[in-house]
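Before the break, one more example. Copy the sequence into your notebook; we will annotate it together after we see the structure.
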Amino acid sequence: MIDQLIQIMTKLRDPDGGCPWDIKQTYQSIVPHTLEEAYEVAYTIEQGDYDALKDELGDLLFQVIFYSQLAKEEGRFEFDDVVGAICDKLIRRHPHVFGQKQFGSEAQIKGNWEAEKAKEREQKGEISLLDDVPHNLQALSRANKLQKRCATVGFEWPDVKGALAKVKEEIDEVEQELDAKTVDNDAVGEELGDLFFALVNVSRYLKHDPETLLRQANQKFESRFREVEQRTLAQGRTLAESTLEQMDGLWEAVKKDRRG
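Here is what the structure looks like once it is written out:
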């Protein structure tokens, strides 16, 4: 079936009879679509809609096929090369599965994984531990990845209490900036950034993905706010006609009902 998909992609990009939209696409123009498809996969999983997951994974796979077709046209590589590269990498990074090496713990397995990645960075001429952390990741995800990477060499708090204390410290620093006689908004923004970064660290210690947590919080807020809207309309007024106290009262009622 993968051969059929590759053939479809080739036909879509064919200057003679292909699709005008597909023909004009570039690596750069496809990136937003790739990100969108990845988020749709994540959302489908979060919703537990596994019947729809098949279609969403297909859409994401098509993105890989698209990039591979662009590369093939330029003589760079083909889809089979992509598959070969990931196969080689997985075998290389799992010597305890595909080789004779044995590890006594999950920590040792993880240590080997990081050692192999370090060798790969060295072969690419990357010097810093952080050289291959993508700059275009979502900010929360990149903060999480930076922290995880630094943790591999022991640069982290001994436990989550240290990370949580850092959050409290950053909150204090935000308050100090806000309490200044002349509030420097740029300085407040910098402290808020530090606070976000510290919260990511707490999430990491508790083995939660911060991007997922925030998406879930967004969904919860949206669902509750929509209910507030509906209850407001049921009372014969709009949100614009409501006071903050009225809206807050409905918000607390929605929270109580949903907990019950």
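The CA atoms of residues 15 and 23 lie 7 Å apart. DSSP finds twelve helices and no strands in the chain. Try to locate both features in your own notes.
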